[in-house]
Amino acid sequence: MHALQDLIFVSLTVTCFVALLGFARALARI
Amino acid sequence: MWLPWMEFAVVLAVMAVLTVPMGQWLARCFTSEHHTWLERLTYGTLGINPQEQMGWQRYGAALLLSNAVMMLLGYLILRTQDWLPLNPLEIAAQPPHLAFNTAASFITNTNWQAYAGESSLTNATQMAAITFLMFAGATTGVAVCGGFVRGLARSSSLNMGNFWVDYVRVLWRVLLPLSLLVALFYVWQGIPQTLNTQTLATTVEGARQQLMMGPVASLESIKHLGTNGGGFFSMNAAHPFENPTPLTNLVHILSMLLIPASLTYAFGSMLLQRRQGWVFFGACLVLFVGFLSLVFTAEQGGSQLLARAGADQQASITQPGGNMEGKELRFGIADTALFVTTTTAATTGSVNAMHDSLTPLGSITPLALMMLNCVFGGDGVGLINLIQYAILTVFLAGMMIGRTPEFLGKKIEVREIKLVMLSVLAHSAVILGFTALAALWPDASASLNNRGPHGFSEILYAYASAAANNGSAFAGLNANTPFFNTTIGLAMLAGRFLTLLPLLAVAGSMAAKATVPAGPGTFPTATPLFMGLLVFVVLVVGGLTFLPALALGPVIEHLQMLVGQLYA
């Protein structure tokens, strides 16, 4: 159970930072 | 009653005096051409090229990637602490949702704690995860501020420095040596610094008592210097092992304000515009004193409900009077009010009293300071947020009097204003959006200690604390649930980076512009008039954004208190 939750929260962390990198790229186009 | 005001004046005067040498030190750290042997060794070990110049996008990417790796490392330690050494009490690993919340909290310099440190973390975790991330989060903030100010100072340039150089310098030259000095002072004052986990004591009644201990002094020093805030113990700076004497209370307060206040001077030095730096310092001071006055007079005035219940709230030689619920007797009203204002202005989050027990009007001070997020503010980000408001002020003033908005010799154009507004809106959207979600969430009310407007304030405070990367809690909310751990974790990440990245883009945009000499149409920004306008704009923007939410919480609670309305 905890292994699945670990996968979810590690994925959530990675997704957040990848999205932030995308956000930074989008800001450059403003 | 003049004594508390004298104390406030002396503390703020000492802070102002310390601002100059510390500001000079910070400015030298950001502008020095010389790399020490320790820094060269670090660059060599990590494969960093210190000569590389970065544009704002590369600077921001380095910031994000370094923080992502350190957050995942913190998560790993928190999830495996039961396998790690220095765990004689066999403390279990944090569950995944709590570990996510804790790792996000400490890497973003929030230090929100949905756990009790003394019973949930081993000494190895307190050092390797918590203290490590405290240094990482604070260093990131100060380093980015150096890059941001450098961007403002440059002219017709695509670069704003090197993130790794800024990071390594702030760590080696500023935070590590200062933390060591302050930690030694704390040990002298009686704060424990040991690898032992506990000691057994016999009380006056003859009972045996288990006292938890650990490397507290080293955590306390970076906790306040780094505007971090997470306590070794769940009682935080109200615990006698974290805050044993009046002197440690004073040093806690000065440590919290030291770097945020000094960065205004460093800003003036780096731009060769000292008056501009003092204008920013003055604006922060005016707001700080205003909010300090609010919480002090509200707490000293006491509670109408306690008065009806027959409580003696008159000041006398045996008690400080006022609302003493949730406060340490040894700190009283004045030291609590000063600590509440400092910890939320500097977005530290360390507490020496229970904020949940503040009077409704008194609780507006911490809430408002976290919502404004620029009154000295956290290490580095506070000054960046204040400059965001300064750009907005220049723009609004320019619109009113028909002058082209200029700031620091650069024209403020559509792009800068779009980016600034994105940052302002991101901060408020995170607080209000997540508060609305939690207020509607089916199980969220089960986490509240109070119903009615005070319960709403508990939720609003949690997300304001998360978005401002403050970390203090109203303490009436059981936040250790999957919903709160996940949403508060996301609010901390969004509050940190969705505001920081647009402002880095502003610095990059300003660096690329050519500096134009001040002309007769230039609105001067290093004047008391601009300071007043800046304070006005901060209060108006903050008020328009957050007053409706405050009206649903502390304002209505105050009005109901006056007519004796209670919620069972």
Keywords:
heterodimer, A: 30 residues, mainly alpha, rod-shaped, B: 568 residues, two-stranded antiparallel sheet, 18 helices
In short:
Chain A is mainly alpha-helical and 30 residues long. Chain A contains 1 helix and no strands.
Structure, described:
The complex is a heterodimer of chains A (30) and B (568). Chain A is mostly helical. Chain A has one helix at residues 2-28. Chain B has 568 residues and is mainly α. Chain B has a domain at 2-200 and 208-267. The A-B interface holds A 2, 5-6, 8-10, 12-14, 16-17, 20-21, 23-25, 27-28, 30 and B 57, 60-61, 64-65, 67-68, 71-72, 75, 79, 95-97, 99-100, 103-104, 415, 418-419, 422, 486, 490, 493, 497-498, 501-502, 505.
- Give the strand content of chain B: under 5%
How far the N terminus sits from the C terminus of chain A, by CA atoms, comes to 43 Å
Number of helices of chain B: 18
Q: Calculate the terminal CA-CA distance of chain B, rounded to whole Å.
A: 36 Å
Write the layout of secondary structure elements.
The complex is a heterodimer of chains A (30) and B (568).
Chain A: H1 2-28
Chain B: H1 2-31, H2 37-46, H3 56-79, H4 96-107, H5 117-120, H6 123-153, H7 163-189, E1 198-202, E2 208-212, H8 216-225, H9 246-270, H10 274-301, H11 304-308, H12 332-345, H13 360-372, H14 381-401, E3 406-407, E4 410-411, H15 414-440, H16 452-467, H17 482-512, H18 528-562
Antiparallel strand pairs in B: 1-2, 3-4
Helix pairs in contact in B: 1-7, 1-9, 2-7, 3-4, 3-6, 3-17, 4-17, 6-7, 6-8, 6-9, 6-17, 7-8, 8-9, 9-10, 9-12, 10-12, 10-13, 10-18, 12-13, 13-16, 13-18, 14-15, 14-18, 15-16, 15-17, 16-17, 16-18
